[in-house]
Write a structure and sequence with these properties.
The chain is an alpha+beta fold and 148 residues long. The protein has a single domain, classed as 2-Layer Sandwich (60s Ribosomal Protein L30, Chain: A), CATH 3.30.1330. Helix content is 37%, strand content 15%. It contains 4 helices and 4 strands; from the N terminus they run αβαβαββα. Helix 3 links the parallel strand 2 and strand 3. The N and C termini lie far apart (61 Å).
């Protein structure tokens, strides 16, 4: 049994530096946002920039939590879209972006990771509550109360 564990450990060590051997979980970054904000912070932009510079042939996977409240769900989607828009502004082709909404990530954050170029998924999904996107985020709670 010890021999097999040693072989597995050695294979993990030697494949670590090879980009095609890494899963997207090895590259995962959390981009955090301020409360009631969908604007990328300076540190968030730096995290995104560092992943763009290391992605080579891979794709960028953007993941965000859905939230339990309608307004929280909209914040999550809008934060993911802000990261997506920033990536596109940096010149990354939309075909290299995977937008995965409804994943488990910490609140007020978006998970960003590099995947293999063979991975697939949508580059955008529609907002959960399109009517809220017409208003500034700080008014979403008031607008949602009126709509219900």
């Amino acid at each position: 049994m010890g021999y097999i564990k040693a072989l597995i450990l050695l294979s993990m060590i030697f494949s670590f530096g090879h980009p095609e051997a890494q899963s997207h979980n090895d590259e995962k970054q959390l981009v955090r946002f301020r409360e009631q904000s969908v604007k990328l912070t300076r540190s968030g932009k730096l995290r995104v920039d560092s992943l763009i510079n290391t992605m080579q042939d891979g794709k960028l996977l953007i993941e965000g939590a859905a939230g339990h409240d309608y307004v929280d769900a909209q914040y999550s989607w809008s934060r993911m879209d802000a990261v997506r828009a920033y990536i596109i502004d940096k010149g990354v082709d939309t075909a290299r972006i995977i937008f995965r909404y409804g994943s488990e990530v910490p609140s007020r954050s978006v998970s960003l990771s590099v995947t293999l170029k063979e991975d697939s998924g949508r580059s955008i999904t529609p907002p959960p509550h399109p009517v809220l996107t017409d208003y500034p985020p700080r008014k979403w709670h008031k607008v949602w109360k009126k709509l219900r």
